[in-house]
Amino acid sequence: MPFEGELPLYQQLAELLKEEIHAGRYKQGQKLPTELELCELYHVSRNTVRGALQQLEKENLLLRQQGKGTFVCKKKYNHHIVPARSFTDMCREIGCKADAKVIKSVIKDPTEEDIAFLDLRPGAKIIAIERIRYTDGVPVELEISHFPEFFSFLLDEDLNHCSMLGLLREKYGVWFTKSRISLEVTFASYEMSHYLAVQKEYPLLLINSELSDQNGMPSCRCVQYVVGDKFKMIL
User: Fold this and answer.
1) What is d(CA 110, CA 24) in angstroms, rounded to the nearest whole number?
2) How confident is the model over 160-183, as a mean pLDDT?
3) What digits encode the pLDDT tens for the residues 142-157?
4) pLDDT at 153
5) Model confidence over 34-83: pLDDT tens digits?
6) pLDDT of residue 21 exceeding 70
7) CA 226 to CA 151: how far, in whole Å?
8) Which CATH superfamily is domain 77-234 in?
9) Which residues have CB under 8 Å from 122's CB, separation 6+?
10) How far apart are CA 78 and CA 225, in angstroms?
């Protein structure tokens, strides 16, 4: 394919490849042709191909894996770390579709962290709800929420395909206004890897949130295991 203009050939090729990626010729996660195949395809030198690939790698459009080849990077969603903000609202703002699938919804004994934050009396139980969260049909997060027994009404709700915070706000008049958040890195257990479609020991971002309601009452401890390569965290 002939190239024209004053820009260096590698930049022109980089722009062409970028257009083809955005047009869907090369899809997210797809392996690109080899350098030699790109030379033949676009009728340019190997140095031009390497320069174009390096340019797109700097722009986070391509990822080179030694011994495997060059791949189109998968789209990353912006995950704003904002107190008491629902996953569904976040997805709506960045233009993707949120979904949820309930794994577990039970009454169980609290952890020491639950007892301390929720100020539970001896012998009290908690409501534990575990869900997989999706963006555009892709599993991106395992969400584990612990509530005091007052929230037992959640056990009667269908929490698939919905925003739990939205349900609490709109149906029960409960919303969370204060939170304390901590971040750390962890690794997927076998069970998590199954839910999130990643390999065992895959690195995950662990977000711990302690939420209080509009009256200042400690009401929820939430743990989120987020697939890091699918989100860009914004603080």
Assistant:
1) 48
2) 90
3) 999 999 999 999 999 9
4) 97
5) 999 999 999 999 999 999 999 998 887 888 877 788 988 776 555 555 55
6) yes
7) 25
8) Chorismate lyase-like (3.40.1410.10)
9) none
10) 16
What are the extents of the domains in the chain? 9-72, 77-234
Quote the CA–CA distance of 67 and 34 in Å, as a whole number: 11
Separation CA 126–CA 108 (nearest Å): 6
Mean pLDDT of all residues in 14-31: 87
In whole angstroms, give the CA distance from residue 157 to residue 174. Answer: 15
CATH of 9-72, one of 1.10.10.10, 3.30.230.80, 3.30.70.1060, 1.20.1560.10: 1.10.10.10
Q: Write the secondary structure of the chain as one string of H (helix), E (strand) and C (coil).
A: CCCCCCCCHHHHHHHHHHHHHHHCCCCCCCECCCHHHHHHHHCCCHHHHHHHHHHHHHCCCEEEECCCEEEECCCCEEEECCCCCCHHHHHHHCCCCEEEEEEEEEEECCCHHHHHHHCCCCCCCEEEEEEEEEECCEEEEEEEEEEEHHHHHHHHCCCCCCCHHHHHHHHHCCCEEEEEEEEEEEECCHHHHHHHCCCCCCEEEEEEEEEEECCCCEEEEEEEEEEHHHEEEEC
